[in-house]
């Protein structure tokens, strides 16, 4: 028997990530090849005509899984009945801007969209925040949608996770699918800590295979931390196809589960694991089963890593304070 359609909201759908993401969702990349979807696309009035053009293209693409499209500038209409909300809408960072520069613009957007989701989304709606500053936007959304369980609110660090996999695969000359269990700790920013201490290729530790601690503790980390800025410098636009693909990976693994023995990185509400302050949205290694994520416990954190986990937590605490100051 055919499955009931899942309603997926994409905010900022007329933007460049939106344009890459909606066809992926309609093709089954996010939820699987047998899961029908109804797309809800939200953008702001200046982008309404462009949004309508995206809707026209979705109709023209004749995706068999796509059972309906709502394209609107009305946040209530966009949020009504959605099972999944992918929050891409916001003000993107431009060349030379720090993420903090865009904080105040995004805090007010996430506050009002939180209320709309809380009132109008389907019960148990799961939320992925992509728009920067992603961790703190997700925290604002959590604070202003108190009836949505905190387990249902996450932010995207899977792009950073995938970037780390890509760097290791290139360095070792192995398929990216063979590299497992890297970790992105902390903020989706240049303080994030890409950690390979538990990563493997086959049954061998990445650290042994690479056999170059200077590279792993230096250039590898900064390359992953700075990759977003490098893409902006090269394209004069922030990453879009890789961000859309990572958003699909994030939701797919959350809903359909992570493979046995494999974890992924997700920005989730800290419960104090690994002595990360509770009350931040922080990227941890997680496994997923039955639509729930669980932080991987018991990994050894050496002194080098500890400092990096703490540094990115400090930045998130500062962002949290800055976000709250924008609210008053
Ligand atoms: P974009 O400017 O091309 O698109 C953003 C869209 O959001 C625009 O169409 C804009 O009209 C819309 N928008 C603005 N305010 C809105 C609102 N209140 N409600 C609904 N829509 C609204 O930007 P983009 O390149 O698609 O990037 C989107 C966001 O994703 C940016 O914040 C960017 O920094 C972030 N990003 C995050 C990651 C990640 O890994 N977490 C990766 C890449 C980009
Ligand atoms: C990215 O990581 O590509 C995005 O978050 C863009 C940015 O602002 O760095």
UniProtKB/TrEMBL annotation:
<dbReference type="GO" id="GO:0006108">
    <property type="term" value="P:malate metabolic process"/>
</dbReference>
<keyword id="KW-0816">Tricarboxylic acid cycle</keyword>
<dbReference type="Pfam" id="PF02866">
    <property type="entry name" value="Ldh_1_C"/>
</dbReference>
<feature type="binding site">
    <location>
        <begin position="12"/>
        <end position="18"/>
    </location>
    <ligand>
        <name>NAD(+)</name>
    </ligand>
</feature>
<dbReference type="InterPro" id="IPR036291">
    <property type="entry name" value="NAD(P)-bd_dom_sf"/>
</dbReference>
<feature type="binding site">
    <location>
        <position position="132"/>
    </location>
    <ligand>
        <name>substrate</name>
    </ligand>
</feature>
<feature type="active site" description="Proton acceptor">
    <location>
        <position position="188"/>
    </location>
</feature>
<dbReference type="Pfam" id="PF00056">
    <property type="entry name" value="Ldh_1_N"/>
</dbReference>
<keyword id="KW-0560">Oxidoreductase</keyword>
<feature type="domain" description="Lactate/malate dehydrogenase N-terminal">
    <location>
        <begin position="6"/>
        <end position="153"/>
    </location>
</feature>
<dbReference type="InterPro" id="IPR011274">
    <property type="entry name" value="Malate_DH_NAD-dep_euk"/>
</dbReference>
<dbReference type="InterPro" id="IPR022383">
    <property type="entry name" value="Lactate/malate_DH_C"/>
</dbReference>
<feature type="binding site">
    <location>
        <position position="99"/>
    </location>
    <ligand>
        <name>substrate</name>
    </ligand>
</feature>
<dbReference type="GO" id="GO:0006099">
    <property type="term" value="P:tricarboxylic acid cycle"/>
</dbReference>
<protein>
    <recommendedName>
        <fullName>Malate dehydrogenase</fullName>
        <ecNumber>1.1.1.37</ecNumber>
    </recommendedName>
</protein>
<feature type="binding site">
    <location>
        <position position="106"/>
    </location>
    <ligand>
        <name>NAD(+)</name>
    </ligand>
</feature>
<feature type="binding site">
    <location>
        <position position="93"/>
    </location>
    <ligand>
        <name>substrate</name>
    </ligand>
</feature>
<dbReference type="InterPro" id="IPR001557">
    <property type="entry name" value="L-lactate/malate_DH"/>
</dbReference>
<dbReference type="InterPro" id="IPR001252">
    <property type="entry name" value="Malate_DH_AS"/>
</dbReference>
<dbReference type="InterPro" id="IPR010945">
    <property type="entry name" value="Malate_DH_type2"/>
</dbReference>
<keyword id="KW-0520">NAD</keyword>
<feature type="binding site">
    <location>
        <begin position="130"/>
        <end position="132"/>
    </location>
    <ligand>
        <name>NAD(+)</name>
    </ligand>
</feature>
<dbReference type="InterPro" id="IPR015955">
    <property type="entry name" value="Lactate_DH/Glyco_Ohase_4_C"/>
</dbReference>
<dbReference type="InterPro" id="IPR001236">
    <property type="entry name" value="Lactate/malate_DH_N"/>
</dbReference>
<feature type="binding site">
    <location>
        <position position="43"/>
    </location>
    <ligand>
        <name>NAD(+)</name>
    </ligand>
</feature>
<comment type="similarity">
    <text>Belongs to the LDH/MDH superfamily. MDH type 2 family.</text>
</comment>
<feature type="binding site">
    <location>
        <position position="163"/>
    </location>
    <ligand>
        <name>substrate</name>
    </ligand>
</feature>
<dbReference type="GO" id="GO:0030060">
    <property type="term" value="F:L-malate dehydrogenase (NAD+) activity"/>
</dbReference>
<feature type="domain" description="Lactate/malate dehydrogenase C-terminal">
    <location>
        <begin position="157"/>
        <end position="321"/>
    </location>
</feature>
């Amino acid at each position: 028997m055919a499955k009931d359609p899942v309603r997926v909201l994409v905010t900022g759908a007329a933007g460049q990530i939106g344009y890459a993401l909606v066809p992926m969702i309609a093709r089954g990349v996010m939820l699987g090849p047998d899961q029908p979807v109804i797309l809800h696309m939200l953008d702001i009035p200046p982008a309404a005509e462009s949004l309508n053009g995206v809707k026209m293209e979705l109709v023209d693409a004749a995706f068999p899984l796509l059972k309906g499209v709502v394209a609107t500038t009305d946040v209530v209409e966009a949020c009504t009945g959605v099972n999944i909300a992918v929050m891409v809408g916001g003000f993107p960072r431009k060349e030379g801007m720090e993420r903090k520069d865009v904080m105040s613009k995004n805090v007010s957007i996430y506050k009002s969209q939180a209320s709309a989701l809380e009132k109008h989304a389907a019960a148990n709606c799961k939320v992925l925040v992509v728009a920067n500053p992603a961790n703190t936007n997700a925290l604002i959304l959590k604070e202003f949608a108190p009836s949505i369980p905190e387990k249902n609110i996450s932010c995207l660090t899977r792009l950073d996770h995938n970037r780390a996999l890509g760097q290791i695969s290139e360095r070792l000359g192995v398929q990216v699918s063979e590299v497992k269990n890297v970790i992105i700790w902390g903020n989706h920013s240049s303080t994030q800590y890409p950690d390979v201490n538990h990563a493997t290729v086959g049954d061998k530790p990445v650290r042994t295979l690479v056999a170059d601690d200077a590279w792993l503790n230096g250039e590898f980390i900064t390359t992953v931390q700075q990759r977003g800025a490098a893409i902006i410098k090269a394209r004069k636009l922030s990453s879009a196809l890789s961000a859309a693909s990572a958003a699909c990976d994030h939701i797919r693994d959350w809903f359909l589960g992570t493979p046995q023995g494999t974890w992924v990185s997700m920005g989730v509400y800290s419960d104090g694991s690994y002595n990360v302050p509770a009350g931040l949205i922080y990227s941890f290694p997680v496994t997923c089963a039955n639509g729930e994520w669980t932080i991987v416990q018991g990994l050894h954190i050496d002194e080098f890593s500890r400092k990096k986990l703490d540094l990115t937590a400090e930045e998130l605490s500062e962002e949290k304070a800055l976000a709250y100051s924008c609210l008053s």
